[in-house]
Amino acid sequence: MKIFISSDMEGTAGVVDWDQCTIGGAQYPYYTDLLTGEINAAIEGAMRAGATEFLVNDAHSKMANLKPHALAGRAGYLSGRYKPMYMMQGLDASFDAVFLVSYHGSMGSGGSVLSHTYFPAAFAEVTINGVVAGEAGINSLVAGAYGVPIVLVTGDATTAEETERFCPGIKAAVVKKSITRFSAEALHPEAAKDLIREQAESAVAGLSLAGPPALELPATLRIRFRSSDYCELAGRIAGVRRTGDLSAEVTGSDPLWMYQTFITVVLLCRGLVE
Ligand SMILES: [Zn+2]
User: Fold this and answer.
1) Pairing of strands 53-58, 76-78
2) Which of 53, 64, 133, 165 has its CB surrounded by the most CB atoms within 10 Å?
3) What is the mean pLDDT of residues 115-143?
């Protein structure tokens, strides 16, 4: 039984500041160790329920945050930047389930710690068929396309709620309670790992009842930008229709194409800054 793990970092118990999850930050090495512990807890829980193979796709920042040897379950490690399938690179129909570890709330959510949607400078809000989508919701396009259920998410309560909209019945390990966008009350790391282990085990044990994310097609992904220069650029991509000074949309019947088109917008917008 194969599990695909997409790992971010802002959702780890204790993380409340960009500095803690940015390479070069004084506290970054400590918090990457905590993140690794949470990923491993998810792997260990899944192994208890019979999972045997794991691929961890490092999906945070420059996407090379983890020490490969420190991953449990002899997990494969997919890392590095500019992956065409970004946070979901490596997933295909051969996997039995997807875990989203250390995810966070969407840019528009109220006071979810370190909330953003892919690229904080460019995106104010993304909706799919009118439902506000965080990264989990957007990434569910890929899982849906390959017919693989997303069965576990870890992060704060907002992240769990936003993911549930696209993945009904998902198991959530809520490891912290956000107070503001830069403060949260977190479980002790050992308690967080225990909770993740339990939820991962029960997610895999209940796999036969889980279905892939369902999406009514054709679907529309709408983006509200934070400034018109990003929107202007995005509107030049084939398949992206500009609908206002700050808004554009992508409509299609192929969720994989929609995701890749969105990722092209992300990479182009990042290019404006990087
Ligand atoms: Zn993220």
Assistant:
1) parallel
2) 133
3) 96
Helix runs in the chain, H state only: 28-48, 135-146, 157-164, 189-205, 228-234, 255-273
Identify the CA nearest to 252 among candidates 147, 146, 129.
129
Tokens of 140: 């569910």
Rounded CA separation 71/43 (Å): 9
**Buried b / exposed e along 92-104 (16+ C-beta atoms within 10 A):** eeebbbbbbbbbb
Give the pLDDT band (50/70/90) at residue 111.
confident
> In angstroms, what is the span from residue 59 Cα to ligand 1's centroid?
7
SS3 49: coil
pLDDT of residue 127: 97
Interhelix angle 135-146/157-164, rounded to 10 degrees, is 40
156 CA to centre of ligand 1 in angstroms? 13
Which tokens in the block code for residue 163? 């993911």
How many whole angstroms from 104 Cα to the centroid of ligand 1?
Answer: 6
Residue ranges of alpha helices (H) inside 2-134 are 28-48
**Ligand 1 midpoint to CA 115 (Å):** 8
CB under 5 Å of ion ligand 1: residues: 8, 135
Q: What number of other Cβ atoms are within 10 A of residue 225's Cβ?
A: 25
For residues 33, 184, 4, 150, the Cα torsion angle rounded to the nearest 10 degrees is 170
CA 61 to ligand 1 centroid distance, Å: 8
Q: How many angstroms does the Cα of residue 102 sit away from the middle of ligand 1?
A: 9
54 φ/ψ sector (left φ>0, alpha ψ -120 to 50, else beta): beta
pLDDT band at 169, cuts 50/70/90?
Answer: very high
pLDDT tens figures, 38-68: 999 999 999 999 999 999 999 999 999 999 9
For residue 32, give the amino acid letter: T
